[in-house]
Amino acid sequence: MFGNELLTALPPWELTMGNLPKDTPVIATDKAKWDPSYQKKIGLKTGPAKLDERLAAAIGRTSKRIYRMLNLSGYARLDYRLRENGQLYLLETNPNPQIARNEDFADSARHAGMPTRSCCRSSLPWASATRPGSDIGLTPSGVPRVSGWPAQLAAGWAPVLSA
């Protein structure tokens, strides 16, 4: 997600582990995220999610609602798990995702037609300007500051979208 008042949802991005033994849960552990030899062993790949347009649009709308409910600003990544029955579960929201070249956030932006350099440049004004009432901002020295989270966050594993 990019933006403050006007939000842009990037294309859904998918993480797969094609070499896991059958019935092994697909969980992005630290080892799966950071160990290149383990990534190769389990066949970890990321790329555009293979979703029909209706579902991708619904995920974009849901992401915008959650982004606003959590009073996020600038840019953020929302991580979901989509069940085979169409239920979408929010796993976490990352208000400061990696935006470096060859990271998922930048790859998703590039897939949407925004080069990595543009992705980084366009996130700076949004990240440094907060929405009215936002508790997220920058200190005078430019260090990110988060002084308080919304008191009511959705908890548990309730689906945020059902097909």
Notes on the protein architecture:
The chain is α+β, with helices and mostly antiparallel strands. The chain has a single domain (2-146), classed as ATP-grasp fold, B domain (D-amino Acid Aminotransferase, Chain A, domain 1), CATH 3.30.470.20. Helix content is 31%, strand content 20%. It contains 5 helices and 8 strands. It has helices spanning 30-34, 36-42, 53-69, 104-111, 116-128; strands spanning 2-3, 13-17, 44-48, 74-75, 77-82, 88-94, 136-138, 144-146. A two-stranded antiparallel sheet has the order 1-4. Strands 2-3 form a two-stranded antiparallel sheet. Strand 7 and strand 8 form a beta hairpin. 15% of the residues are buried. Residues 133-139 and 142-158 have low confidence and may be disordered.
Radius of gyration: 17 Å
> Mean pLDDT, rounded to whole units?
76
Architecture, CATH level 2? 2-Layer Sandwich
The helix/strand class is: alpha+beta
Q: What is the count of helical runs?
A: 5
Query: Which ranges are low-confidence, i.e. pLDDT below 50, for 5 or more consecutive residues?
Result: 133-139, 142-158
Task: Estimate the global geometry from the Cα principal axes.
Answer: globular
And the CATH topology? D-amino Acid Aminotransferase, Chain A, domain 1
DSSP strand content: 15-25%
Number of domains: 1
Question: Ends: how far apart?
Answer: 22 Å
Question: How many strands?
Answer: 8
CATH-assigned homologous superfamily: ATP-grasp fold, B domain
Give the strand order, joined by hyphens, for the main sheet.
1-4
